[in-house]
């Protein structure tokens, strides 16, 4: 039975408690921003904003999964990371489909709404990134949370650039290009998370091999 009477174990318990509290905060931020961006994205006709809204939704779900497996064994945490990696990859594929739709319909989004909502989203993700910074080099589960938030900040900056591009060109191409870049970021992040999680799965099997029934 593990003992938590020493300073190291007590410190680990306290760190886990802080991480759990941070996850609840960033989950709430992402859930609220999903609602804000999905409404604004549909109203403005922006592929980039809609993609960013779904990214907020995926992150909120991912943080919920992270809270669920927090304190579980490495094997279960790596399974959660695999689920999150797969969800990021699916998000990237959805964005690619959305980009194709907007190209075919030649939509021109409202650049003012894109810029205003993009600034709010950037501030929200900046807060999340700062809160999660201390856990950027953790296990696959923690690292996946950090990668999601890092990609979100990059995506928000890209959305603001797209708003300026739409304003300057009067076309929807900047919005479409940014949405495509966001898809690539999601797929690359998903690949990184899945590789790390599979590595931890192998490590967990080596430490605790599954018994073979005879």
Describe, in short, the structure shown:
With 214 residues, the protein is mainly α. 84% of the residues lie in helices and 0% in strands.
Architecture overview:
It is a multi-pass membrane protein. It holds the Pfam family Cation_efflux. It comes from Thioclava indica. The structure is a single chain. It is built from 6 helices and no strands. The protein is mainly alpha-helical and 214 residues long. α1 (7-44) runs antiparallel to α4, α3 (74-105) packs antiparallel against α6 (173-207) and α4 (111-132) packs antiparallel against α5 (140-169). The model is unreliable at 1-11 and 210-214 (pLDDT under 50).
CATH architecture label name: Up-down Bundle
**Strand composition percent:** under 5%
User: Helical region count?
Assistant: 6
Based on secondary structure, the structural category is: mainly alpha
Helix content: over 70%
Detail the poorly predicted runs.
Answer: 1-11, 210-214
Assembly state? single chain
| CATH domain class name | Mainly Alpha
Task: Find the CATH topology.
Answer: Alpha-lytic protease prodomain-like
Overall spatial form: elongated
Profile the largest sheet: none
Number of strands: 0
The termini sit apart by: 30 Å
Mean residue pLDDT: 79
- What is Rg? 19 Å
Give a topology summary.
Blueprint: H1 7-44, H2 47-69, H3 74-105, H4 111-132, H5 140-169, H6 173-207
List keywords for this structure.
elongated; 214 residues; Alpha-lytic protease prodomain-like; single chain; mainly alpha; 0% strand
């Amino acid at each position: 039975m593990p003992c938590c009477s020493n300073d190291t174990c007590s410190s680990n318990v306290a760190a886990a408690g802080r991480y759990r509290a941070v996850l609840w905060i960033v989950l709430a931020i992402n859930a609220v921003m999903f609602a804000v961006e999905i409404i604004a994205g549909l109203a403005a006709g922006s592929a980039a904003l809609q993609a960013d809204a779904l990214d907020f939704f995926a992150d909120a779900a991912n943080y919920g999964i992270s809270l669920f497996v927090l304190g579980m064994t490495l094997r279960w945490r790596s399974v959660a990371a695999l689920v999150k990696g797969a969800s990021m990859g699916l998000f990237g594929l959805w964005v690619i489909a959305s980009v194709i739709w907007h190209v075919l319909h030649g939509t021109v989004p409202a650049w003012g709404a894109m810029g205003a909502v993009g600034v709010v989203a950037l501030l929200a993700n900046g807060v999340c990134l700062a809160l999660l910074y201390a856990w950027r080099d953790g296990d696959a589960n923690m690292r996946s949370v950090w990668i999601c938030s890092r990609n979100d900040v990059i995506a928000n900056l890209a959305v603001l650039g797209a708003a300026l591009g739409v304003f300057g060109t009067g076309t929807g191409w900047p919005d479409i290009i940014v949405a495509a870049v966001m898809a690539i970021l999601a797929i690359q992040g998903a690949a990184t998370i899945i590789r790390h999680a599979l590595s931890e799965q192998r490590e967990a099997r080596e430490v605790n091999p599954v018994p073979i029934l005879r």
